[in-house]
Amino acid sequence: MTATPTAPPDHATTPPRPSSRDPWLDNAKMTLVTLVVVGHAWVLLPASDARDTAYHALYAWHVPAFVMVTGYLSRSFAWTLPRFRALLLTVAVPYLVFEAAMALFRTTVGGEDLDRLFIDPHWPMWYLAALFLWRLVTPIFLRIPHPLMVAVVISLLGGYVGGDVLDIARTTGLLPFFVLGLVVRREHLTRIRTRGWRLVGVLGLVGTIVAAWFLHAPLSMELLYWRSTYAEAGFGNMTGPLARSALMAVAALTAVGVLALVPRRDGWFTALGPATLIVYLFHGFVVKGVEYTPSALAWAASAPHVGLLVVTAAAVAVALLLAAPPVARGLSPAIDPLGTIDDLNPRDWADEIPPRLHASATPVEPHFPGQLR
Asked: Between 12 and 143, whose confidence is greater?
């Protein structure tokens, strides 16, 4: 949702997760990447009010939430040779490998026709491209005054320009949430552990569902994907920035509220957190495989609510299975073909971070989707 993960630990040969690793962060990452799989699976269902309402409500906040977590865990990046090397080997290399692998799967198995490989990231590789660019500008936003205000201005202006090279439109559109994560400190995370913020999370979830029920038909998903110009999303030069500003506010409040609901205890779910990159990169093959079998979900057209529940449960199961330690250990060489991620784990950078940055000792892992395309 990274400087990318270490391969999930083999408990027979490696020590347990260090106590400095925050269970809440692993719980948050695993929750959000599971929702990625759920959102992508919903696209496979026949169109219905139930599916469209759920889809709009989810996309109103959950991509921004993971971008915020990614920003919080990216604050240790600096313009040094070790960090640049880590960025290339833990973000750029997986991007090249899986952009090629997914394209091969989609063209040979699915018979799709893809173009502009590596230049215009294909689903779901946009997040790795965005993460690469966000990491590069991290030192700038950690030093300039009013970084969040600058990021908001860039996002609002970006809505006029667009651009698909390395998905730059989505990168600039979601930039405020990444920068919000950069400026958050540990004590801020402690402050949201309140009944008030949990209430905000519940009300945000209910509110987005209600709004999605009434607005899913007239509201273009392009606004929620953060990847199109205002005109492409159906807005004018004046209404576009207003719509994006309103979405920013709703997404930020709901995301923080939902994150306040995430459990902070260490448990079996927490142990899956280090494998979020594996879930993110591999779930697409499962989703696309189902998409290439149209009859698999044809029955859901006559039972949309049951279909929504069944597909949601199946998507959660896929995420948990991919993150399970035995599966994750077997798949980890694919995301680390050069065998370097363990040596470049950002967790090892914690002691080098200036105290004023209040950096986390936990590595970040990319998560998340866009629309199937």
From this structure: 143
Burial of 91 (0-12, 13-18, 19+ CB in 10 A): buried
- Contact criterion met (CB below 8 Å) for 58 and 38: yes
- Determine which helix (DSSP H) or strand (DSSP E) holds 150, and give its type and residue range: helix 147-161
Taking the C-alpha atoms of residue 82 and residue 340, their distance in angstroms, rounded to an integer, is 12
Distance in angstroms (rounded) separating the CA atoms of residues 223 and 220: 6
- Tokens 């698999």 correspond to 296
CA-to-CA dists, residue 133 to 66, 228, 334, angstroms: 16, 18, 23
In a domain, 3, yes or no: no
CA distance 352 to 345: 13
Contact 276, 332 (CB under 8 A): no
Q: Which domain holds residue 346?
A: 24-357
Q: Please report whether residue 223 resides in a domain.
A: yes
Asked whether residue 12 is assigned to any structural domain, the reply reads: no
Distance CA 181, CA 178 (A): 5
Render pLDDT for 113-163 as a digit per residue (tens, 0 to 9): 888 889 999 889 999 999 999 999 999 999 999 999 999 999 999 999 999
Domain count across the chain = 1
pLDDT tops 90 at residue 98 = yes
Residue 205 has pLDDT above 70, yes or no: yes
Give the position of tokens 């149209």: 294
